[in-house]
Amino acid sequence: MLLSDDFNDNSRNTSMWNLLQKSPNVWLDETNQRLEVRSIADVNGASVVYYANGWGFLTASNFSFKADFHDSSITVPGNYAFGTMIGIGKFGGGIVTTANDNAAIEVQRYVDQNGNGSVFDYEKTTDGNHVQKDVKTRNQDSGILYISYDANKDELYLSDTGYWAANAWDTIPGLLKGEWNSNVVVPFLSGYVRNIALNSGDAYLDNFVVDSGTIVYYEKQKSLEGATKEEKQLKKWNRRNESVMGGRY
Ligand SMILES: [Ca+2]
Ligand SMILES: [Ca+2]
Predict the structure, then answer these.
(1) What is the residue range of 231's domain?
(2) Distance from the CA of 203 to the center of ligand 2, in angstroms?
(3) How many helices (H) and strands (E) does the chain have?
(4) Does the pLDDT at position 249 exceed 50?
(5) How close is the Cα of 8 to the center of ligand 1, in Å?
(6) Is residue 143 included in any domain, yes or no?
């Protein structure tokens, strides 16, 4: 294990995570020794994100990370959806472009015009073009989400059973070094809620663990260069991160 967060101290580790909250009605609450997705009902779909603060994975090396999830089988009338997910976003040109370029595995529950479901889904966004690639039925409320990457093959593996190709539910080829042309990618944890109130215990993530990878601390590297110009640039990047992260993730 290279890095982990068990959320047991009930407060955000700000050297590890940035918070992006798009709506006051949907929030992450690090409480009860886990990362809870919470909301009030009158929302039209909003996400809230913990994304890596100034660190990421080099795409020159394999990497793997996971997190526990829980999505309760709550049922209420009406049109709603909620989900918890783990994913990666592209880091390029000094900014985290998680809204425009991301890949994620999501645990979702919904009741809408398409019926009702309790599913896993794989979602991918490149240059802002969002694709919901695959959906499969989910039979359990709790489990583990896994993301792993084979650097030689440039293949990303998404799974609810384990790491690497043998456990892959979905394989995304040619994305990180191919389509994204990215040397570094940034992990994130996220919740998404539409039109439902989530109470404590309804949906949460826990036990984020990086099991392998080459971690780079890109912001610290920049800071260490010591140039005032660089520091200004870094602040600009950080501000831009907030706006660039303003998409769904
Ligand atoms: Ca915990
Ligand atoms: Ca914490």
Answers:
(1) 3-244
(2) 17
(3) 3, 18
(4) no
(5) 5
(6) yes
